[in-house]
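Recap for those who missed Tuesday's class. We walked through two folding examples back to back. For each one, the amino acid string is listed first and its predicted structure tokens come directly after. Nothing is annotated here on purpose, so try labeling regions yourself before you check the end of the notes.
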Amino acid sequence: MKIPTQKIRRGLRFNITPLIDVVFLLIIFFLTASHFVRSETLEEVDLPEATETEDETETELKRLVVTVTADLVLHVGGKEVSVAEVEARITSGAEEFGGEFEVRIRGDRTVPYETIEPIILACARAGVTRVKFPVVAK
């Protein structure tokens, strides 16, 4: 008499290794993306209000975010910079990326125009046509 052995169950098996790889890649992507979003908004700025705004669409443009705080200090990437440094970054970005370069000026609502004017003029001299001013919708 033969002793019964365990039957090998043949069925559908899922290989979850690729799924785990994709999940880890998504985690890394979102961690990196959240870092860049946080670096744009490190400084507290009371943005001006506008009645009409344009919805922000994500593009593949290379972007330089210049923040001007209420105490008239310029920041790029969370670091305090001078007007000359901002102008140099605008010029180098325009030379490197051409029409794919965007400058975003986050100015506090109390900042006078004289503080932001050198940034706008640097964009004009460098040929940057994509200049944006983030605002809060009323």
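Example two. Treat it independently of the first, because the proteins are unrelated.
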Amino acid sequence: MSKGIGDSVIRPLKNALDDMPIHVRQLAEMFRKHGQKQNRNTSAVQNLDSADVTHPLQTAWRSDTDWTPDGIVGTGKGDRPDPGDYLDGDYVRQHLDRFEGGATRFYRADNLDKYGPGNGGTTFVFPTSEIDDIIRQADGDPEALSPMLGLGDGFFGTRDNPVDVVRADFSPQQIADGNLRLPSGNEGGANPQWIPGGYLPDGIPEAVFDISDRSVGDFTPFYVE
């Protein structure tokens, strides 16, 4: 009986992986490893590419590149290639078009005061319109909002014990002036969960732009409510 159960799991997994482009296979593993999809059931294993890699990224990889997601991450911060070296130009343009309404990010107030808005002169941002949708989905629960934005548990504190947080909104012109672009993974703010392609592990699009101080952007206290 155990052999039959093993075959029913292993065979579809092997077939799914054999049919999957290497970049999708490696990205799927990164999204599952760093995201919140660890408890998937075995019936979903045949759809790993569509279930675990955000749809636009599945077909974004250039066919004429030798770079793989594992190779990019393994190169290490400081030596990773420009995203244009492995991502299709149309994909890059369409990704950045999602920021045409401006960009947003959140800072812990104490860290913002201590370090400023940019880590090494750049900051990660998310499309303002999509951030507003996620905030509405959280329905006033700070503990739910933190992981939804890829900020880690407890970023906003709890209802009973909130943390001082600042929301920064940047206009389309400000992010354009700051050379809005896809993250390369070489940025100071790129953490070990960074994935090539411009998405957080939970599928939220991200980009980076250059910023040196608070003269750029609208910085306001933020409360989850």
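Answers for example two:
The chain has a mean pLDDT of 85.
The chain has two domains: 2-53, 92-222.
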